[in-house]
Write a structure and sequence with these properties.
The protein is an alpha+beta fold. The protein contains 2 helices and 7 strands; from the N terminus they run ααβββββββ. The chain has one domain: OB fold (Dihydrolipoamide Acetyltransferase, E2P) (Beta Barrel). Helices cover about 15% and strands about 30% of the residues.
Length: about 120
């Protein structure tokens, strides 16, 4: 993250968290080697954040009720003149809402909610 983006976040009242190093985990292979691999069921809803970086959110290019295919553009960063957010799977857009997202600011962001069709 560049210094300008960090300063903008601080001025906006957001707090960024920095931590040194990484995770140091024990090697507990016994559990993973003795447990059979299972197929994970498909989620009922996928929340795709329109905020993908420290800048502004992408503008949604879909509406509630639209059908999308995997890879379809669901949002574009018009202020950058390039870059888009793509659908991770096919399904129907059920809403565009504010929802908690994984972002250094810790704030909610607008998300396109997709109901996968399997």
């Amino acid at each position: 993250m560049n210094r300008e983006a960090i300063e903008q976040a601080r001025q906006a009242g957001r707090q960024l968290y920095h931590f040194p190093g990484g995770l140091r985990l024990r090697h507990n292979k016994k559990v993973s080697c003795e447990t059979p691999v299972e197929k994970v069921p498909l989620a009922q809803r996928l929340y795709v954040p329109l905020l993908q970086h420290t800048g502004r959110e992408a503008q949604p290019t879909v509406r509630e009720g639209d059908r999308v295919l995997k890879g379809d553009v669901i949002g574009c960063f018009e202020h950058l003149g390039r870059g888009c957010v793509h659908a991770p799977t096919s399904g129907t857009v059920s809403a565009i809402v504010r929802h908690p997202i994984s972002h250094p600011s810790g704030e909610d962001g607008r998300c396109v909610v997709i109901r996968p069709d399997g």
